[in-house]
TrEMBL record:
<dbReference type="InterPro" id="IPR020476">
    <property type="entry name" value="Nudix_hydrolase"/>
</dbReference>
<feature type="domain" description="Nudix hydrolase">
    <location>
        <begin position="7"/>
        <end position="146"/>
    </location>
</feature>
<protein>
    <submittedName>
        <fullName>NUDIX domain-containing protein</fullName>
    </submittedName>
</protein>
<dbReference type="Pfam" id="PF00293">
    <property type="entry name" value="NUDIX"/>
</dbReference>
<keyword id="KW-0378">Hydrolase</keyword>
<feature type="domain" description="Nudix hydrolase">
    <location>
        <begin position="150"/>
        <end position="299"/>
    </location>
</feature>
<comment type="similarity">
    <text>Belongs to the Nudix hydrolase family.</text>
</comment>
<dbReference type="InterPro" id="IPR020084">
    <property type="entry name" value="NUDIX_hydrolase_CS"/>
</dbReference>
<dbReference type="InterPro" id="IPR015797">
    <property type="entry name" value="NUDIX_hydrolase-like_dom_sf"/>
</dbReference>
<dbReference type="InterPro" id="IPR000086">
    <property type="entry name" value="NUDIX_hydrolase_dom"/>
</dbReference>
Amino acid sequence: MSSLPRRQRVAAYAVIVRDGAILLSRLAARVTKDELWTLPGGGLDHGEDPRDAVVREVYEETGLRASVGDEARVYSAHLPGAWREGRRVDAHALRIVYSGHVPTDSPEPRVVEVDGSTMEAAWVPLADVHAGVVPVVPMVLEALADASPPRRQRVAAYAVVRRGHAEDPAAGADEVLLTRNSARGPHPGSWTLPGGGVEHGEPPALAVAREVREETGVEVEVGNVLGVHDTHFVGTAPHGAVEDFHGVHLLYAARPLADVEPHVVELDGTTDAAAWVPVADVLDGVLDVRETVRYALGL
């Protein structure tokens, strides 16, 4: 049995990943003379909730406002002979690790708490971490091995609104009503069909009419379901979290009730433009469009 003084420490950390990089903190020289990176986080204050502690620590070490989930993983490390506060101790570290995220428009990381245990904060490529290019504490690799993005399934309804189509040749060139994703939306700058998520208890046809009105200012009469499209991928959601996302898209035929020029009604949302777009431009690849649009035009 070790004769060294015993020290037990409970700390909370966050795994924050986006766009192929992980948010890490570099340990200060007073902690280790070698370059060594760890997850942002730290010790719990007496009586402090672990989720509050990790949010506080992430801000102090990176300057970023994080959100964390309710679930966590706990790692235990017995470190006899560890160097703590200027002397050797028999250390026992309990580490509570949450999955977290920060807003996509967050500033670059910076250390807020000076003279602490962190000297630098940065987004580090995951490939460099796994390849050992960036030296990390073992907890980082353990947490990444155990982490899996939360699953999210979203049912959405979209409108296929065309004018000048074969059913209405007198209207001129064949055009489709599209909206452009803003910086706050998924795939910024790409064009998609007007529409969005179906709220709980909301009939999908009513959801389509509401979303078209909010995104384009156009009132439409909603017709039959043309088809169902789905997409599945792992990526960064608009709010900054990495998700295993499955989107189910109900595609409705719709026609405008009046000759209104499309315009964005809901400002500062996920749509920054709305327009009638020639179908030929979509099919020729002139515009960056979501796969849902191509699928709908092929129906």
